[in-house]
Amino acid sequence: MKGLTAKQQEILDHIEAFMRREGMAPTVYEIADEFKIRSATAFAHLRALQRKGYVNRSSKARSLSIPGMAKPGQGTGGMTLQIPVIGRVAAGVPLLAEEQVEDHIKFDPSLLPRGLGGHKIFALKVFGESMRDLGILDGDTIVAKQTNQARIGDIIVAAVDNEVTVKSFYIKNGMAELRPANPEFNSVFCPLDKLSVQGVVIALTRTY
Q1: Which of 9, 85, 103, 180 lies at a CB distance of 3.0 to 4.6 Å from 130, suitable for a disulfide?
Q2: 23 vs 172 pLDDT, higher one
Q3: Topology of domain 1-67, per CATH?
C-alpha cells in the first residue's frame, strides 16, 4: 500500500481510536469537526485513504471500516480483530516461515497499542525458549505489526539469509545484534544490510 501524508495518518489513527472507543465508525462530519476542517476536505482525505487501501467505505452512514478490524458488534465481546497466523517462527533456532495463512485468531483490539492505523497485523507461532525471560514461551503466539523499521530494544520478527526468528534488536560494533532473552542462547550477529525486519512484536496470546 502507498504511504500516507501526516494528516492522513492522523485521520486514520483517529478513526481507529474512535471505533475502539465508541463501537462504531465516525461520520465525515465528526471527522471534520475533530480536525477543524471542512467536510469536503475530510471527505477528500477519506477518498485518499480508500484509494490507498487503508479504509473501506460505502455510501451508507458510518460505513467506514479498517481492513483486518471486525465491524462493531461482530464476535463475542464486541469488536474483535481477525488476525492471520502466518507460518511459524523458531525462538532459538531460526526456522523459515511459510508465506501462507495457517489460521486466524480473534484478538481484542483494546489490548493493542494505539497508533497502529495503516499497519497490517499478523501472528506467528513461537517454538523454543530463547525469549523466555521476556515472557515469550514455547507455544505462544506473538502478534506483530508489519514494518521494516525497528528501534533499539524492540522485539522483532527478523529474516536473515531467508531464515526467520524472534529476537530483541540491538546494534553492536556496526552489526545488527539479534539478542535472546535466555542465557543458554547466544546473540546472532549480521551486517545491517543483510537484516530484513518483518515486523515488531506488540502482543502475544497463550493457550493454557
Answers
A1: 180
A2: 172
A3: Arc Repressor Mutant, subunit A (1.10.10)
Residue 93: the pLDDT is 45
Report residue 76: phi and psi, to 5°.
Answer: -85, 145
CATH architecture of 81-205: Ribbon (2.10)
Active-site residue, from 125, 130, 145, 168: 130
What global pTM score does this model have?
0.60
49-98: pLDDT as tens digits: 888 888 888 777 778 888 766 554 444 345 677 788 887 665 554 433 44
Catalytic residue selected from 167, 168, 172, 187? 167
**Is 167 noted as a catalytic residue in this protein?**
yes
- The reply to whether 168 belongs to the active site is no
